[in-house]
Please model this.
Amino acid sequence: MLRVDQAGEYGATRIYAGQLAVLRRNAPEAKLIARMAAQERRHLDRFNQLMAARRVRPTVLQPLWNVAGFALGAATALMSEEAALACTDAVETEIDRHYSSQLDQLGQDDPELSADIEEFRADELEHRDTARSAGATNAFAYPLLTATIRAGCRVAIELSKRF
Ligand SMILES: [Fe+2]
Ligand SMILES: [Fe+2]
Model:
């Protein structure tokens, strides 16, 4: 669980880095994204800390998530500001599902990890809602774009579980 969660938060920081590299620095979307990126950094730091404490190795796919995350962020930001927000909308929708299913699986087994996941899940839902209210759904081909990104996230989650 820690391996896949750390991979996801790492991917999130790379997506936002890609978007911030493309978006105009003073665009309102860039400000929202910079704030969300800082929270992803905090999530990632926490999982790094837990992985070190519990001697969990990171996914060997980290170099792939580095490039793929940045590329996804940059590509969506190049499409439009709304597409960049739709990317957040799609990713956070899948992360919410992922964290919810982990919380179900964990039950009372690991209260320390559950507390972090619970807190981060609330942040991710807030990111999703922020993206939606800032205009994500106005993105060109929003249903197709978000369905594609969500499918990609599910593949990334499965791969990170295995490798
Ligand atoms: Fe996060
Ligand atoms: Fe997030």
